[in-house]
Amino acid sequence: MKEAYVKTDIEKEIGIIEFFHPQSNSLPGNILAQLTTAIQEAGKNEKIKVVVLQSAGRKAFCAGASFDELVAIENKEDGLAFFSGFANVINAMRQCPKFIIGRIHGKCVGGGVGLASAVDYAIAKEGAGIKLSELSVGIGPFVVGPAVERKMGKAAFAQLSIDATTWRSANWARGKGLYAEVYPDTDGMDESIKRLAESLVESNPQAMAELKKTCWQGTDHWDTLLAERAAISGELVLSDFTKKAIQQFKKK
Q1: For position 1, what pLDDT does the model report?
Q2: Where do the domains of the chain lie, and which CATH numbers do they carry?
């Protein structure tokens, strides 16, 4: 696979949204926009009762922001637009009236941790370690922060965001609440996802929608909050420190 994509398949009332990017499933602006649209459309599609979010390949689940696009940002407006892409995806997941199951088959970095935090139920493999690397390149996990903190708590978020160069294991993430289940192999992970998705398909859609509202209670202000956070990141990415740090990171 060489071309990036986002696609939605429907299998027995389960909407499977899959994304791919050849650079470790990183998230450039066009993929973020397509993910937002796919999630919104799945929420409106009466043929879909539950959503599974997954990425392609066998390695990383998601490497976060596209460094190529980060270094190309030249002004605050472009910075705001790029980071708003992450805000839009998280808010689309939050507002979707259907439960979203996350299939986390590999490592998550930065925005990838944000995606894993914004799904309603994350099922992972043991190799799905996590890292919030933003501070190490001069930014900070401002946009994904509310989602991570909501799922894992302020203390775990602080550990991840301050110690930005250390990987945390999938079992550590499970212990902090990010992952609901962790399996040693792909078969175990996929079997659990299949079981849960098929169970939810048989559940009352109205009850699930109301339960999701309850689970996300207290986040109605996120449209404004995440936009404000996107502006912070969009300004920080313009600094000489950040541009040099990203270039050095790309060389590794």
Answers
A1: 61
A2: 5-186 (3.90.226.10)
